[in-house]
Amino acid sequence: MATNSQKHDPATLDFLHTDFFKIVLKDVARSNLGAGTPATNVNQSKSMVAEGGIPRQAVFYVHKSLLASLSAELDKHVNNEMREGTQGVMELSEVDEATMTAFLQWAYKDEYTTDNPKAASALLAHTKIYVLADRFNTVPLKDLSYNKITALLADLGMVAATDDVEAVMTAVSYAFGNLPFSSFSSSSITAPTERLLKYFAQYTSWALDVFRAKPEFCSLLEHSSDFAKALVTNSRSAATPPWISTIIEAGGGSKGTFSIKSTCIDDKTHILSRRCTYCNYSGVMDILCPPCGRYDREIGYSVQVNGSTLGILGEERISGTKTSFTYKCKWCQVSTTYAGSGSYVYTSYIYCRKCGYVGYTQIEN
User: Fold this and answer.
1) Which of 5, 148, 218, 349 is deepest in the core (most CB within 10 A)?
2) Using H for helix, E for strand and C for coil, what is the string for the chain?
């Protein structure tokens, strides 16, 4: 206990004796804290737990002077002549308990934690915190949550598991539903100015092959014009016109006197030339890019227009020998080296172009 001779910082004394400000969360689900993360784990003081010490009540207390110091926007909520200021209470809708717990944790400690911080499921928690920070214009918290989101996505890379894909799309959907977008006119489509929307749009565009078949993605595309606009601004123009598509089914087509023909080459010396031990087909095979999980089915097609050969698709992406070669993915641009010995070389990445069999494809001399 302090003695009379001890000196105290007047600012500290003022902080300790200040009034508490009450934050009431309205119309929220009470099941968002996550297992093992009750509000009382954040801090045992009255300011950090729900009213009456019951962690799942949607009422929180925070030091009034601290709350007002977090941003000019919050200062207006705390210090005014309306009900908020005179009664010391603020009612919030569309904010869950876990998000408010993290917000107050940051207010007192300059940091916050989430459940399963390395999992894709943490993206939604960070996104909700970012949205709340945007709502109150607390720039340091926006920066912190943004850095956590971008670092987590960089660690996750291109998600593949169903649960991870759903978690990413849920976070993206929440962001586009709760953050301001850029202006839009009938004469142009503009990219979002909000940095998190911009980042999410670029990530989704990069991983489009993963998301396009998911119902969550299709639903967001259908119901959010902002998301659709952002996706368009991150889409690249087609590499070729439609009459010389880079994704051509064998057989070709025609338009008047203009004819196109694409044929899988019959070249036993081609790097991907194999014999399928399942259907006995011999020819150039398809290849899988391990880093992003996409299949390249274009390599080895000869494209002819009006009888003139334009070239062989995919030749610039693959080099080496049949038993040791490097392939550069056309989508993620990552180069992978496939090296081995004998007749069987990383066969789990080589697919039969005819039957789709994944397994032994034997090298023929």
Assistant:
1) 148
2) CCCCCCCCCHHHHHHHCCCEEEEEEECCCCCCCCCCCCHHHCCCCHHHCEHHHCCCCCEEEEEHHHHHHCCHHHHHHHCCCCHHHHHCEEEEECCCHHHHHHHHHHHHHCCCCCCCCCCCCHHHHHHHHHHHHHHHCCHHHHHHHHHHHHHHHHHHCCCCCHHHHHHHHHHHHHHHHHCCCCCCECCECCCCCCHHHHHHHHHHHHCHHHHCCCHHHHHHHHHCHHHHHHHHHCCCCCCCCHHHCCCCCCCCEEECCEEEEEEECCCCCCCCEEEECCCCCEEECEEECCCCCCEECCCCEEEEECCEEEEECCHHHEEECCCEEEEECCCCCCEEEEECCCCCCCHHHEECCCCCCECCEECCC
